[in-house]
Amino acid sequence: MTDHYEFILAGKNIVLNAEGFLDNIRIDAEPSDKSMLLKEAYSTLSQSATPNFLLATVHNGQPMLLRKAGLHDKEDTDQALQDFTRTSGTDVLRFTLDEQFQLAHYFYYRAGKLLKSSKGLGSGTEIPYEKMGRTPELVLTAFCDSWLVIQQLKWRCYRLQASLEDA
Predict the structure, then answer these.
(1) Is the dihedral of CA 100, 104, 110, 112 positive or negative?
(2) Which pTM value belongs to this model?
(3) Contacts of range 18-23, beta carbons closer than 8 Å, 24 or more positions apart
(4) pLDDT tens-place string over residues 2-11
(5) In the 8-state DSSP scheme, what is residue 85?
(6) What is the Cα Rg of the chain in Å?
C-alpha cells in the first residue's frame, strides 16, 4: 500500500502558530480564508494529482499540517524537520497516511535527528510515546491526541507558493 498523505506535528514545548510552523519547516504557503474539517479535505486533496494547498491548525499548543505526499522532496522534508528540532527545543512526529486516510507509519525527530521510524529507520531507541503501544494511532494519542479528535478539528487551507523551479 502506498503512502499518499503526510501529517506533521510539533511537540508541546513550542509557541508557534500554524504560519510560524510552516515557515520554520521551510514550506512556502499563504493562508486562505477557507477552513474545513479533515473529512471535507480528504475528498478535495484526493481529487487532484497535485493539489496546490495544504491544511494546517494548532491543537493544544501543537502546530500541525496535512498535505498530499509527493509534492516535495522527502529528503528536503527530513532535513527541514531535523533542523527544526535542532534549534526549536521541541520534537516532531511525521506520519504517512494511506489512500483511506489511515495512519500508516510514523517518524520521530528530536535534537536534530530522526530517532525512530516505524519503517525501521533511525536508531531504534524506544521513544516515550511508545509506552502505550507502537501502532501509529497509539503513538499519536500519546504525543498529542487521538486521530478521531484531530479529524474533528477545523483546519485552515494554505495555498502553496510555486517554487522558482516550477515557474
Answers:
(1) negative
(2) 0.89
(3) 18/56, 18/57, 18/58, 18/63, 18/64, 18/65, 18/156, 18/158, 19/56, 20/63, 21/56, 21/58, 21/63, 21/64, 21/65, 22/56, 22/65, 22/158
(4) 558 899 999 9
(5) H
(6) 15
